[in-house]
Structures are given as C-alpha cells and as structure tokens.
Write a structure and sequence with these properties.
Keywords: Membrane, Transmembrane, Transmembrane helix. The chain is an all-alpha fold. The protein has one domain. It contains 4 helices and no strands. The relative contact order is 0.16.
Length: 83
C-alpha cells in the first residue's frame, strides 16, 4: 500500500511542477517537480522509507513557510497538507 501512495505522491508533485511551468513559465517549478516527484516515486519503488521520508520533509521545509507567508492553498498548501 505504501508503494501506491508513494507513486501517487510522486505523481502529484510532478504534476504540480508541470502545472507551475504551464501557468507561469517557471523552469524552477518543472525542475523541482520532476526531481522531487521522481525521488518520491523512486523511494516507493525501492521501498526505501528513508528516501521517501527525506523527500517529503524537504518539500515540507520549502513549501510550509511559503504557505504560511502567502496563505495561498495552491501549490504550497497542498504540498504541505500532503506531507
């Protein structure tokens, strides 16, 4: 079950980066979404709980303060909530 959730989490992170790129033209969004989405899915594939844990905590550390400062649910609030 954790594999499926890890794959879904990785897909959501990647999709968020792609949407950020399409809406704002943000290269940083697509790169971060691809890297962290891949790491989350790869952690699920390897059943490596440490990799999955670190990936989600890094995203929380980056997106949590952004959500707190901006009070906008998308995308920072969603990533913070999914963590």
């Amino acid at each position: 079950m954790s594999d499926i959730l890890g794959y879904l989490y990785g897909l959501v992170v990647f999709t968020g980066g792609a949407i950020g790129y399409l809406k704002a033209g943000s290269t940083a969004s697509i790169l971060a979404g691809a890297i962290f989405g891949f790491l989350a899915a790869y952690g699920a594939y390897l059943d490596n709980k440490i990799l999955a844990f670190l990936t989600s905590w890094i995203l929380l550390a980056v997106m949590g303060p952004r959500f707190y400062r901006g009070r906008k649910f998308m995308p920072a609030g969603l990533v913070t909530l999914l963590r």
